[in-house]
Design goal:
The protein is an all-beta fold. It has no helices and 11 strands. The strands form 2 sheets. Strands 2, 4, 5, 6, 9, 10 and 11 form a 7-stranded mixed sheet that branches. A 4-stranded antiparallel sheet has the order 1-3-8-7, with no helix packed on it.
Length: 120
């Protein structure tokens, strides 16, 4: 069982930046990890993912603005979010143990989420 704890969310004005962190309770080497987000009444949306070899994937909305990275020595996944806009407002979740990069159905472990609110 892997526990995931996200942090770094908050309130920011449009155009600003935030960096989310996700600390895993055990090694993240060899596992797919990803960020998803969800707003009330909407389906969960994939944001970004990283494969064990370091290959990354992004949703169309995240591409060019967000960067996913990991520090395996700290069992930590990051999401650097730049040029945030109101549409990025959501609860952001970290996930691990997947087998398909941006497909949430394949991830075994989920964090509790961190809220990101972007105001105009």
């Amino acid at each position: 069982q892997v526990q995931l704890v996200e942090s770094g969310g908050g309130s920011v004005q449009a155009g600003g930046s935030l960096r989310l962190s996700c600390v895993a309770s055990s090694s993240i080497s060899g596992t797919y990890m990803a960020w998803f987000r969800q707003t009330p009444g909407k389906e969960r949306e994939a944001v970004s993912c990283i494969k064990p070899a370091g290959n990354t994937g992004y949703s169309n909305s995240a591409k060019g603005r967000f960067t996913v990275s990991q520090d395996k020595s700290k069992n930590t996944l990051y999401l650097q979010m730049n040029r945030l806009n109101v549409g990025d407002t959501a609860m952001y979740y970290c996930a691990a143990g997947g087998s398909a990069c941006l497909d949430g159905r394949n991830y075994m472990y989920w964090g509790q989420g961190t809220q990101v609110t972007v105001s105009s």
